[in-house]
């Protein structure tokens, strides 16, 4: 923990924490910081098209009860300035700059979807910065994605109150009901709410995700470069980035735990939020097995 | 809970609980009962060649802090009388008879390895008896096993203090060190210790496991018949019953959560015992997501 963190820590929630700004490297980053002053901060890397308020308060607030949690908008996203890059490598550089501005020397990373690609890139290239890694609903470089087909299908469902219902949840009544509960939680905040993203964000982000999956990574060089303990999580029926990605990643990573949730899609972490929080905590709190 | 359970409950450990006996259906079953009087009992189904004292006290005692846990010798095994059958179906009938003798109308099952095959058979055929199911280091009917090759390899390692070191743990220093710690825990009990099994047990058990995996199950009828919430667990590098079995089972079961542990073999639940106990608890305590 740094002086800056200790001075700025507070115990609010995702819905009530003030949005803060920090500027450097030509970008003014928007972020919120929750939880206690001490402990390794958990930095959240958001999915395609999402902003700070697209995180599930049930997940973020629960995780912040016993560790610092930082949600932020990467360059160009939400209320951060700058341009959204069209490639994962540049997004990783922007995220590193943000972490650097906060003066954090060691973090845990939780990357969801596109954010999981960024998290892999950071962990592979900046191993000393990352203590533990959580990859949710994501793909390895060269992995399998169905982003455009799934988006097209979701936006054709004009009766859905929010595209995230078909995008993030399965068609089962239980999953859809969880989806409605998630949307309700995510829409509570009214004041100082983050800005929705338009095509200036989603176009380059889509290109970045598609390119990441379309680019072979011979010998799984990125996964092999990741030495941190890693928790890989997926929904059983993720239509955008299938669970087979998660299984494959867990086979190639040197120290990965895999968790797949039943009857769930891309938003498995929101559907099974209590279980997910419990698994993340158990993983982050685990001491290394003595050799 | 039944009158019998409440009358017999005590708060001892696997190492100190008296071995009890209950007789019926022509068999005198040896068992130990730990934990509180109330709650759905968790019945443990043991691996090939194992007896009651082959369970890890670290796992059993931790699980028994907040639920009744019952470890037993199935017919012919350890200090139970009767003949060890050479097929999973008959083992399932014997286990059902044991549960019946204890007057339990609803149980959770934790089946490890061969015990996981037996647990699948019970859950598929006696759905009303089983609340939740935990399958560890096991295979579906028609699945993949390397029992004889792995046993041969393990018994050729004459320098290993116990065949379970090469059988249950990977070659990494961390895994082997966990293996030594497990063996130490499992060998604490001296008085009233369970009887080791000879070929009258292991020969038919080996035949049962090999036959189970060699017999196709068209349309995964057994997995499809299982409707209970199921937690499927495997070590990343299980050489006897590979992790691919666990992944495949989680795809076919209607309501399965999958957990794979890093750098671990067949004994992943003993190596990662704290994590495993946490995951089992989280799974068993989870309320169904409302539809």
UniProtKB/TrEMBL annotation, chains A, B:
It holds the Pfam family Abhydrolase_1. Keywords: Hydrolase. Residues 41-272 form the AB hydrolase-1 domain. One of its GO terms (molecular function) is hydrolase activity. The keyword Hydrolase applies. The keyword Cell membrane does not apply. It comes from the Bacteria. InterPro entries: AB_hydrolase, AB_hydrolase_1, AB_hydrolase_fold. This is Alpha/beta hydrolase. The lineage of its organism: Bacteria, Pseudomonadati, Pseudomonadota, Alphaproteobacteria, Hyphomicrobiales.
